[in-house]
Amino acid sequence: MRITVDQEADILYVKLLDGKLVEESEEIEPGVVVDYDADGTPVGLEIWNISQRVPPSRPLVEALECIAGLPASAAPATDIARRALSAVESAARPR
Predict the structure, then answer these.
(1) Bridge partners of 4?
(2) Number of structural domains the chain divides into
(3) Cα four-point dihedral sign 34, 3, 47, 12
(4) Cα 34 from Cα 44, distance rounded (Å)
(5) What is the pLDDT of residues 57-69, one digit of tens each?
(6) pLDDT tens digit string along 46-60?
(7) Which of 9, 12, 36, 94 fits 47 for a cystine, CB–CB 3.0-4.6 Å?
(8) How far apart are CA 30 and CA 10, in angstroms?
(9) CA within 13 Å, CB half, 89
(10) Tell me, what DSSP letter sits at residue 93?
C-alpha cells in the first residue's frame, strides 16, 4: 500500500496493489472514488478535497481515519486503512 497526496489537485490517493492497471472507477460517495482492475478487485482509492476532510495537524492519522470510515463498498481499502491506523497508533504510544 502506498499513500500519496497531490496538494495542487487536493487529492489523496491510496494505491492498494502494485502492478495492476485501473480498468474502471466508481464514485462510492461524493469525492470518494474506488479504482478497480479488470477482475473487479479494488486497486486504488481517491479522496478528493482532502484538505477539507483532514486537519493538517495529524495528516496521516486523520487520512487513515477518513478511509477507515468509508462505506462498506470500499471494504478492502477500509480494512487496510484500519490495520495501518492501528500500526501508526501503536508506534506513537509511549513505551
Answers:
(1) 13
(2) 1
(3) negative
(4) 6
(5) 565 666 666 666 6
(6) 888 877 776 665 656
(7) 12
(8) 14
(9) 10
(10) S
CA pair distance 88, 48, nearest whole angstrom? 23
Tell me if 28 sits within 8 A of 70, measured CB to CB: yes
Cβ neighbours of 45 (radius 10 Å): 25
DSSP annotation of 61: H
* pTM for the full predicted model: 0.64
Residue 23 grid coordinates: 480498468
Range of the domain at 48: 2-92
Asked whether residue 88 carries a pLDDT value surpassing 70, the answer given is no
- Cα separation of 2 and 36, whole Å? 16
Predicted confidence at residue 60, as pLDDT, reads 62
> In 3-state terms, what secondary structure has residue 84?
helix
Distance, CA of 73 to CA of 84 (rounded, Å): 19
Rounded to the nearest angstrom, the gap between the alpha carbon of residue 51 and the centroid of all alpha carbons in its chain is: 14
At position 88, the amino acid (one-letter code) is V
